[in-house]
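Question thread 4412

I'm putting together a teaching handout and wanted feedback from people who do this every day. The idea is simple: show students a protein as raw sequence, then show them the structure tokens that encode its fold, then repeat with a second protein so they can compare. Below is the first pair exactly as I plan to print it.
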Amino acid sequence: MHRHSLFVRLFAGLLLLAAVRASAAETAWPVPDWQTASPDSQQMSSDGLTKVRDWLEQHGSKTGLVVRHGQIVGEWYFGDATAKSKYIVYSTTKSFASTAAAMAIYDGKLTLDTKVGSVLAEAAPSPKGDVTLRQVISMTTGVHNDTKIHMDPERFTHALTTEPMDFPPGTKWDYNNTGLSLLSPLIRKATGRDIDQWLAERVFAPIGIQAEDWSWERAEDYPLPYSGLHINARALARFGLLFLNDGKWQDRQVVPAEWVKEATGPSQDLNKSYGYLWWNNTTGKWKGVPADAYAALGRFDNDMLIVPSLDLIVIRQIGDDPEPKRKLQIGELFALAVEAAK
């Protein structure tokens, strides 16, 4: 009896341990608010997260956030930053704009093969009208890359009607805000809604991103699709958590799962590290980071890393860097966060 009782207690203990581990691996949805958890409870190293925090501080960061299994295990604000502080995230905006395109596609308003000219007859010169939505959001439009377009008060008009074509569409990968500028008028004409309105209704509201959590810069009354979003860290993490869970929020499929997979993998063969306005790690871009990781990356490293295999989100914001020539390797931060995951 004694041996049997010991076996029963041992077996019960193993079951409890398994249950605790399973529970820790389940997503804790931030509904209505984020839950915070000790690192150990979410299989994260406290010492490892201290290294993450130190790196953030040493590199002038304003915010830092680490989410595991849907719970915040590390959250830091530096200087005058608070949880409510909104920062411009520059090209991280692109990953949001891509998602607006996804919603238009799955509403039947557009397809990846829709040609710009079929929606916007004024597209010129030729062959700009033959540029597809797929090429717009994979950086292969062939439109001339005007590096000063952000200073042009009529940037959308010029991108659509006067900027020349340097390459045939789809023949060269070129990180190009001019070509991406075609996205805003394309989505407005196809859906009757702007990118920011579309996202606010179709994505932000369902996942709890409030109006006070974000703002979006505009020009010619269009939201900038390449660098206009200002957002706080916790709201940014909500968007990350949506993607981490294949576009699903609790029991609601907000963004189609097939889009999440396609957008965050290679979108073309010219630069396999680039998806539909997301970067990915399929080519080992970030050392020490799993191959399934992907990220939204912005100027001055206003960035968000998502690692599905580790159920992990890592955010770093600085907004406008007061030291614009600061040199840092964001892969170092990503690797430290991954190393902290047990």
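The second pair follows. I'd like the answer to focus on this one:
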Amino acid sequence: MTAQDQLDLTTLNNLVELDDGGFGLVKEMLSIFREDTPHRIQDILSAVGLKDADALARAAHALKGGAGTLGARDFRILAADLEALGRSGSTEAGSDLRQRLEAAYQGALAALEEFVREGESQK
């Protein structure tokens, strides 16, 4: 499986089209994603630690939106699962939650960076 298998290429290609075929918009959004996501992950971990299902749902929803906007499909799915967990009133996300979030985040970053590199090299 390639890094881009983690991505919703339709979403990303739509962003490129919005930028008249350029990658500036995707790169700007990637920069924001890179800056915001660690805080969102920490919010999720804090909510789980406090056993606050409502806070978990809110934090996961925010993460889901950011990941979805950039086409980080696998990361968005994890966030959606966590949001649903919180909405169900639970915070039982497993002892490996931090590792799963970090792995999904790093995988999304690598895939998005690869998408930009490959796209720019074809221009």
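Top answer:
Good format. For the second protein you could add a caption like this: Residues 3-121 form a domain with the Four Helix Bundle (Hemerythrin (Met), subunit A) fold (CATH 1.20.120.160). The mean pLDDT is 95.
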